[in-house]
């Protein structure tokens, strides 16, 4: 399913000056109209990205990292058992830090040990499985989750649709300006495109260290994600 939302911003100027684009002089004998058109396409996402991490505490750095590695291996093995391809699991950060508490009475920092953490980013290609996999990660030992972030793996078709609609709308509006100014035709002088990023619902961080795992999978609603193009077109008005 694909839907489209159209947002258009116009700035028009009737000028009798040459147009310039990337150091190439484009001669025009008639007035020039310049329009900026934004076209946005919404579609059902086909990819979801979630983050999963494990945090471990221990008296020594070696023990903290060892414990953390064991727990993270359980998480990764669980993901693979659920059918997630190895290429879709990527380590995004490994940290090891000393832990201190501030002793108010002694007015000084007190060493408490070490904390190790490991995070992975996971791409899920079965949207309906997102809730089940999130719950499985908690069972496997993940102590914090973030996401989900929904997107289109390939938004080229959506962008092509947006581009075609933007050009059509730009020409239609430019022709309206031309006719209002007493001209009947247009000559395209320049097209510039700015591509906006893919967007979807903002992800949320969940700390699950003290959460009880529900018997049913976490509810996940993918909604729609959007992709857009922003074009600026210049036309010469011709009689």
Describe this structure in words.
Residues 1-21 form the signal peptide. This is SIMPL domain-containing protein. It holds the Pfam family SIMPL. Keywords: Signal. The protein has 239 residues and is an alpha+beta fold. Helix content is 24%, strand content 46%. It has helices at 61-81, 130-140, 156-180; strands at residues 2-9, 19-21, 24-26, 32-43, 47-58, 89-103, 108-124, 144-151, 185-199, 204-207, 225-238. The strands form three sheets. Strands 6-7-5-8-10 form a five-stranded antiparallel β-sheet. It has a four-stranded antiparallel β-sheet with strand order 1-4-11-9, covered by helices on one side. Strands 2-3 form a two-stranded antiparallel ribbon. Strand 6 and strand 7 form a beta hairpin. Helix 1 (61-81) runs antiparallel to helix 2 (130-140). The longest helix is centred in the C-terminal third of the chain and has 25 residues, at 156-180. It is elongated, with a radius of gyration of 27 Å. The chain starts with a strand and ends with a strand.
Map the helices and strands.
Elements: E1 2-9, E2 19-21, E3 24-26, E4 32-43, E5 47-58, H1 61-81, E6 89-103, E7 108-124, H2 130-140, E8 144-151, H3 156-180, E9 185-199, E10 204-207, E11 225-238
Antiparallel strand pairs: 1-4, 2-3, 4-11, 5-7, 5-8, 6-7, 8-10, 9-11
Helix pairs in contact: 1-2
């Amino acid at each position: 399913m694909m839907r489209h939302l159209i947002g258009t911003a116009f700035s028009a100027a009737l000028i009798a000056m040459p147009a310039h684009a990337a150091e190439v002089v484009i001669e025009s004998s008639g007035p020039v109209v310049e329009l900026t058109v934004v076209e946005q396409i919404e579609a059902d996402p086909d990819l979801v990205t979630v983050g999963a991490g494990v945090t471990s505490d221990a008296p020594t750095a070696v023990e903290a990292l060892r414990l953390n590695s064991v727990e993270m291996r359980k998480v990764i093995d669980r993901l693979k058992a659920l059918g997630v391809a190895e290429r879709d699991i990527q380590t995004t950060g490994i940290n090891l830090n000393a832990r201190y508490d501030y002793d108010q009475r002694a007015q000084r920092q007190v060493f408490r040990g070490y904390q190790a953490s490991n995070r992975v980013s996971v791409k899920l290609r079965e949207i309906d499985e997102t809730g089940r996999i999130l719950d499985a990660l908690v069972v496997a030992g993940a102590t914090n989750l973030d996401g989900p972030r929904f997107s289109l793996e390939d938004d080229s078709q959506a962008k092509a649709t947006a581009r075609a609609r933007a050009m059509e709308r730009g020409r239609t509006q430019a022709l309206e300006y031309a006719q209002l100014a007493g001209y009947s035709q247009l000559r395209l002088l320049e097209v510039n495109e700015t591509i906006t990023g893919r967007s979807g619902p903002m992800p949320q961080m969940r700390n699950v260290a003290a959460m009880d795992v529900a018997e049913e999978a976490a509810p996940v609603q993918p909604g729609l994600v959007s992709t857009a193009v922003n074009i600026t077109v210049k036309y010469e008005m011709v009689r």
